[in-house]
Design goal:
The chain is α+β, with helices and mostly antiparallel strands and 97 residues long. The chain has a single domain, classed as Alpha-Beta Plaits (2-Layer Sandwich), CATH 3.30.70. The chain has three helices and four strands; from the N terminus they run βαββαβα. A hairpin with a 6-residue loop joins strand 2 and strand 3. The longest helix has 14 residues. The protein starts with a strand and ends with a helix.
Length: 97
């Protein structure tokens, strides 16, 4: 059964990594509802992305496995539901503002 998942990715702050992440999701036909990309305050060479996606849990396991194969991705994890997405996005928006 399809549901919302929060996908959190920590990676290098590279101009092409966001494109590769989106390509992995598009190839698997995962619907991206929202996406926030950010860089680390302490180290500008590190960054990450928080995504709200709509898919099945089996597909999320496959997507996580594919994302962790990317060289630039340090860690990828997912959580069921959208509550954590809004919590993480609010935390990142407060840092920027």
């Amino acid at each position: 059964m399809k549901q919302n998942f929060t996908l959190e990715i920590h990676s290098d702050n590279n101009f092409s990594i966001l494109n590769r992440i989106v390509n992995v999701l598009n190839r698997r036909r995962v619907r991206i509802k929202k996406l926030i990309a950010h860089e680390n305050e302490e180290d500008f060479t590190r960054g990450g992305a928080i995504l709200l996606v709509y898919t099945t849990s089996d597909m999320m396991e496959k997507v996580i496995h594919q994302l962790e194969k990317l060289i630039e991705v340090e860690q990828a994890s997912y959580y069921p539901g959208s509550e954590l997405y809004f919590e993480l996005s609010n935390r990142n928006n407060k840092k920027v503002a």
